[in-house]
Amino acid sequence: MTFLLETIRLGLSNLRLHKLRALLTALGIILGVAAVITMVAVGEGGKRNALLQIERLGAKNIIVRSQRPAEATQQQSGQQRSWMLRYGLTRDDIDVIRHNFPDAESIVPLKEIGNQVWRRDRRQVSQAYGTTPELQTVARLRLSRGRYLTQADIDNNEPVAVIGQEVVKDIFPWDDPLGETFRIDDKTFTVVGLLAPIGLAGGSGTALVGRDFNKDIHVPITTARAMFGDTVFRRQSGSFNASEVPVSEVYIASPDRGRVISDAERIRRIMHVRHPGLTDVQIVVPYELLENARKTALTYGAILAAIAGISLLVGGIGIMNIMLATVTERTREIGIRRALGATRKHIIWQFLVETGVLSAIGGLIGVGLGVGASWLLGWGVPRLNRVPLIGSFVSPDAALPTAVTLWSVFVSFLVAAATGLVFGIYPARKAAQQDPIVALRHD
Fold first, then answer.
1. Cβ atoms of 146 and 192 closer than 8 Å
2. Which residues make Cβ contacts (< 8 Å) with residue 87, sequence separation at least 6?
């Protein structure tokens, strides 16, 4: 025990005598550990953000959506400025789904309505849907104020609406929207509720669900059918077109998460029969996307860690190079220690202690830098748009979510310490194998 303590003391003393060299030697380890922690944190943050957005679609939901067939875009020629297109889900499709899934938690249809939403001189393209009160549960919608649609609204064909936050900003920029009216085409609706901001906006969830929920307007589905029928008219760029889509999309909530995949396969078979080739319907299964995202994130994280691990390898090589140079520099010291009775084992331990302490200290500094850099990226990137000069090149929605994981901290530190020891073995053995007499004569 006394020998080990004395060896550690001697190793620390040698490091203190050459502080700058020790720092430069450990720099590779410091940067390697910091790189591993930071890159894993970026990967983990991105993974958690993607998984959160997918989970917000509902892990038990299956979404069947009407989509315009690809060949429909070819129907408009240079001379043809208007046409009628029929595609997508029908009410018969909904009846078939209800018949085949009697134990589903909810089956919620949505019907797109309107061409324009406007109030006074403010207008925007309609993103309004007729639906049922169950949508709030299956789509995990939250309210900031007011109420959502009720069964009474459905039964009485009430002209009421629940609107998203972007609609509030665009149509009611200075007024309290609750209780106020607005128009969808020439139909008047009263605002009874405001949706809370939904994080899917602008993220991967927007692409998955096909739109930004923050721009949604929800009205009772019975009101939508009574006021607008099944035809949606669009006028833009000098052309006119109309589409007849009885049901825009439907949410099917499975009774158990374990049944989602099998239920999704059943729905695909049903839709293949009723819509051959699935050219005019799309099926989105958030749970499948969730599992795929997890697998992709795992692979992505492993690649990032491997790339950052190269920095640790470079740091280890740097330690070995410096320690080899140190062996030559301290040849006379080694000879004196051997002449005073030190064995080869003592010399090996002395050098291993120095490389071990050097890599451990470098690992600790690297951990601090890595955690700090991860926090700084997560905090600073969303604020870059406020920085003069740089801000004009950065999107206001720019973000780089990070999440430091304990395993990356522990693994990177342990690998750093092990790297120092492994790469210190060869210089230590070379020092111990020197002939004491030759070493004493070394100048």
1. yes
2. 66, 67, 68, 69, 72, 243, 245, 280
What single-letter amino acid sits at 115? N
Which of 253, 283, 301 is the endpoint of a domain?
253
- How far is the CA of 335 from the CAs of 16, 115, 252, 322, in angstroms? 22, 92, 81, 20
CA angle, residues 224, 112, 233, in degrees to nearest 5: 95
For residues 34 and 138, membership in a common domain is answered with no
Position 266 scores a pLDDT of: 93
Task: Label the pairing between strands 128-131 and 217-220.
Answer: parallel
Residue 224, Cβ density class (10 Å: 0-12 exposed, 13-18 middle, ≥19 buried): buried
CB atoms within 10 A of CB 92: 11
> Position of tokens 């760029």?
237
Does one domain contain both 76 and 195? yes
- Residue 267 is assigned to a structural domain of this protein: no
Residues 328-362: tens digit of each pLDDT: 666 667 677 767 777 777 777 777 777 878 888 88
Q: What whole-number distance in Å separates Cα of residue 399 and Cα of residue 158?
A: 41
Which residue range(s) make up the domain with 17? 2-53+292-441
Q: Is 222:154 a contact under the CB 8 Å cutoff?
A: yes
Angle between helices 2-17 and 19-55 (to 10 degrees): 100
Task: Please indicate whether residue 395 or residue 119 has the higher confidence score (pLDDT).
Answer: 119
Same domain, residue pair 337 and 371: yes
Measured CA to CA, the distance from residue 341 to residue 55 in angstroms comes to 68
DSSP secondary structure, 81-108, as one string: -EEEEE-SB-HHHHHHHHHH-TT-SEEE
- Within 18-76, residue ranges assigned H as helices are 19-55
Is this structure's pTM higher than 0.90?
Answer: no
pLDDT at 328: 66
| Statement to judge: residues 42 and 150 lie in one domain | no
Task: Give the pLDDT confidence of 4-44 residue by residue, as tens digits.
Answer: 676 667 667 777 777 777 777 778 788 888 888 888 888 78
